[in-house]
Design goal:
Layout: H1 17-37, H2 40-61, H3 74-95, H4 100-130, H5 137-154, E1 167-173, H6 181-191, E2 195-197, H7 203-206, E3 219-225, H8 228-233, E4 239-244, H9 249-268, H10 277-280, H11 282-287, H12 296-306, E5 311-316
Parallel strand pairs: 1-2, 1-3
Antiparallel strand pairs: 3-5, 4-5
Helix pairs in contact: 1-3, 2-3, 5-6, 9-12
């Protein structure tokens, strides 16, 4: 079973190698019980579980960089089915020499216990689901502000690209949160009646029917996060229509100090080539095989803080100078 922390938070559930190994041994023993009993249905289930465990090992061996809990969520389902197989084998052992009346009683008790457990866990999961919160909710709140300002700007007749009469190519430059707000902006504009689409490389995020050829676009809408905002503001012919930065001055200073500290550490580790990626590809820095392990907690802090970096939306003509986002 997978062990150690999974994800980027200190409050995530950890696993135990010893408990996982013990459970695996118990399941193997249950397979032997099914084999000796020649129980075909249970043996078929165990065969499926065996194949799944092999594939699970292959899958986990291909995980690189920092672990995230969602990479092994399938482990819960696999473990549950293994528990069923173990319980099934236990039932075979208990009923091997029992008379019919005892078997009937045990079957009734087992059915009641399984039903009760199912109802209990269903109730617990329902309660847990009712308390679920949106992951990185602040990103959604920022997107709401950006979308409202963008819709208002495009609704004016003087907007670049014709506003509601034009067709817009929506793109995004966000090396910090993997562009999660970009598709949201596109969908919000679509919901408000604008004719929008995105480039072919982004079709997997928004669907093939939302792909738009740059040649037919009357204008561009570009969401930018972080330092690239300064460069976009300096570009002639580009109009800034939305900007959000909720950080305090203290938070801004803390982020700048952390950024400079990590840059210095990278240079001292002879990894100066990674310094530009602190602003252009932070995930690449975190996943770099050359990154010293002692530096990862600092990069992790920067990744968490980068979620709050300023975000802006720009409207531009169909063609942009080379090297600019979008």
């Amino acid at each position: 079973m997978a062990t150690h922390r999974l994800g980027y938070s200190n409050n995530l559930v950890t696993g135990s190698a010893s408990v996982g190994t013990l459970f695996l041994a118990v399941w193997v023993a249950s397979v032997l019980v099914a084999w000796r009993a020649q129980h075909e249905a249970l043996l078929r289930l165990d065969a499926v579980l065996g194949a799944a465990l092999v594939l699970a090992a292959v899958s986990m061996s291909r995980i690189f960089g920092a672990l995230s809990y969602y990479l092994v969520l399938w482990g819960w389902g696999l473990t549950a089915v293994m528990l069923v197989a173990v319980g099934w084998s236990l039932g075979i052992v208990l009923n091997r020499r029992a008379n019919p009346d005892v078997r009937h009683t045990r079957l009734a008790i087992g059915t009641a216990l399984l039903t009760s457990a199912t109802v209990l866990f269903a109730a617990l999961f329902t309660i847990e689901a009712s308390r679920a919160e949106v992951n990185q909710a602040q990103l959604s709140h920022v997107l709401g502000e950006l979308s409202a300002s963008t819709v208002a700007a495009l609704s004016r007749g003087s907007a670049i690209g014709g506003g509601r009469r034009g067709r817009y190519l929506v793109t995004w430059s966000d090396p910090f949160t993997l562009g999660v707000q970009g598709p949201g902006l596109l969908l919000e504009l679509e919901r408000h009646g604008f004719d929008v689409g995105t480039t072919p490389p982004l079709r997997s995020q928004v669907g093939a029917h939302r792909v738009l050829s740059p040649q037919v676009a009357a204008g561009r809408i570009i969401l930018v996060k972080g330092p690239e905002i300064v460069r976009m503001r300096a570009t002639p012919g580009v109009q800034e229509v939305a900007y959000v930065d909720h950080r305090t001055r203290r938070q801004q200073s803390a982020y700048a100090r952390l950024h400079d500290h990590i840059a210095d550490e990278l240079r001292q580790a002879r990894l100066g080539s990674l310094v530009p990626d602190l602003d252009q590809n932070l995930w690449g820095v975190a996943l770099a095989p050359r990154l010293p392990k002692v530096m990862f907690p600092q990069v992790l802090r920067m990744m968490n803080a980068s979620n709050d970096l300023p975000t802006a939306v720009f409207v531009a003509p169909p063609s942009l100078p080379p090297g600019l986002p979008g």
